[in-house]
Amino acid sequence: VNHFGNKSKCWSSGGSGQYEGCGEILFNNTVPSGAKLRELIGYVQQFDFHLPSLTVKETLLFHANLRLPQDTDPLKRLQRVQQVLSTLDLHACAHTRVGDAELKGISGGEKRRLSLGVQLLADPAVCLLDEPTTGLDAFTARHVVQTLQQLAHKGRTVVVSIHQPRYDVFALLDDVILLARGRLVWSGNSADMLKHFAALGHPCPPLTNPADFILDISSIDFRSEEKEVESKERLQVLLKGRESYAKLGLTVHTY
């Protein structure tokens, strides 16, 4: 995937609750059809939805029958399921029921990877994940993000929304998009981001999680009028700094 982005938005509600979008999404510098987008993009929701009585392998086979072309040879469907099990390290629980609150089954991390596996069956070029670490313990969250990193480094585009990741999870991210009140504060390499903020007078303190730091300095503090004014002024500095950074001719990704 050479290009996924160049998206601009403008919203107009007119007080009616109806929103109208404008701009365009370009995929490899062309405007794709809705059918093409569904073919190229896999979307993993924040919460896992699976049939608790099915095993992990049965779940993947079920979705393979629904998602893969009808003329796909049954043996090739099974091979695709085996590939996904191997890619996501799910072989050990392949014959374990998914389970739910009443039926003991696989772990939360395994359910997350199974949800990702359902999307990988169709071999999408882009994977979008909505808060993939929600509800997971620290160790499991890191394992899930490591899996996503491996997929990305094999040539697949992986985009995740994530809140307050631990330092070791943040360190796995290649690029970061930081939004504040709907405006773009940063888009680019995570290491360059900290250098950029330091140049604007906001260095990350020692022994501080960079993820917590960037959220703190880009958030509005409403605890008092004085703090609100101060934090809004700081945010304006960050927004102007990002615009100056873009004008230098450095790589800035726009989504």
Task: Tell me what the structure shows.
With 255 residues, this protein is an alpha/beta fold. 42% of the residues lie in helices and 12% in strands. It has 9 helices and 7 strands. Helix 2 packs across helix 3 (74-87) and helix 4 runs parallel beside helix 5 (138-153). This is ABC transporter domain-containing protein. Keywords: Membrane, Transmembrane, Transmembrane helix, Transport. It is a multi-pass membrane protein. Its main location: membrane.
List keywords for this structure.
255 residues; alpha/beta; Rossmann fold; two-stranded antiparallel sheet; 9 helices; globular; membrane; transmembrane; ABC transporter domain-containing protein
Structure described in brief:
The protein has 9 helices and 7 strands.
Topology:
Elements: E1 4-5, E2 26-27, H1 34-40, E3 41-44, H2 56-67, H3 74-87, H4 108-120, E4 126-130, H5 138-153, E5 157-161, H6 167-170, E6 175-180, E7 183-189, H7 190-199, H8 210-217, H9 225-247
Parallel strand pairs: 3-4, 4-5
Antiparallel strand pairs: 1-2, 6-7
Helix pairs in contact: 2-3, 4-5
Keywords: Membrane, Transmembrane, Transmembrane helix, Transport
Main location: membrane
Domain ABC transporter: 2-206
Total of helices: 9
Question: What is the overall silhouette?
Answer: globular
The CATH architecture of the largest domain comes to 3-Layer(aba) Sandwich
Structural class: alpha/beta
Q: What name does CATH use for the topology of the largest domain? A: Rossmann fold
Distance between the termini: 14 Å
Oligomer: single chain
What's the SSE pattern? EEHEHHHEHEHEEHHH
